[in-house]
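In full, the data:

***
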Amino acid sequence: MTVAVTTSLSSMVGLGARNIVLLKFYDSALPFLTRQQCMAILARFQSGVEDAMALMDDQALPAEFHATVLKETNECIARLRMIIEG
């Protein structure tokens, strides 16, 4: 039991650390993107999310997981659209 808890905690800590790094990279890089770059990224991002969502439909995941994916996706799309729309 202790091993399972330690392994789960290590996985969560790793995901949290990765999330922090990716968010800081995202916040640092996004302001330097041109409108055209954001348009290309948006199209590819939406396609990738749709593919991932299709795969997730086959998995028994909690509703909170799906809600968080949608929330985070919508926030990314909104930030890209802000740059696109000027």
